[in-house]
Design brief:
The protein is an alpha+beta fold and 127 residues long. The protein has two domains: 79 residues; 38 residues, no CATH class. It contains three helices and five strands. Helix 1 crosses helix 3. It binds zinc ion.
């Protein structure tokens, strides 16, 4: 569960990497806080519910958070999370999704254009 939760937190932060890094990071921090808060509430025995009731609540909460994390990662893996955005080939001028294999240098990437099959330093395509 921990691996999936933290993967979702990192993905949330990276999701905002291109334009809204602070918002993505704050979303991850909020998501982490939501994950931990019931544990604090259980330790403080808020509402005087008792350890048994709080334990059941925390377990249900963790399962829901696990489902939410898996759903987020699945959604982001469906093309929503493109760290580098569409790329513009300086050779043939076509736009394409960035390939996995590349050398990254800031916003520039040395990668192979899928259209002209040549290697170039590419930049994000203008919309
Ligand atoms: Zn090209």
């Amino acid at each position: 569960m921990t691996c999936l939760f933290h993967s979702a937190f990192v993905a949330m932060t990276l999701w905002g990497l291109r334009q809204r890094i602070v918002l993505g990071f704050l979303g991850a921090v909020l998501f982490h806080w939501i994950g931990n808060m019931p544990i604090f509430l259980m330790n403080w025995n808020v509402g005087n519910l008792g350890a048994g009731t709080w334990s059941i609540f925390v377990q249900c909460h963790l399962v829901l958070l696990l489902i939410a994390s898996a759903a987020l990662l699945l959604w982001l893996s469906q093309g929503v999370l493109t760290f580098y955005g569409r790329r513009a080939c300086p050779g043939c001028g076509s736009h394409y999704d960035p390939p996995l294999l590349a050398i990254n240098l800031g916003r520039s990437r040395y990668e192979r254009c899928p259209h002209c099959q040549k290697w170039h330093w590419s930049n994000p395509a203008k919309a």
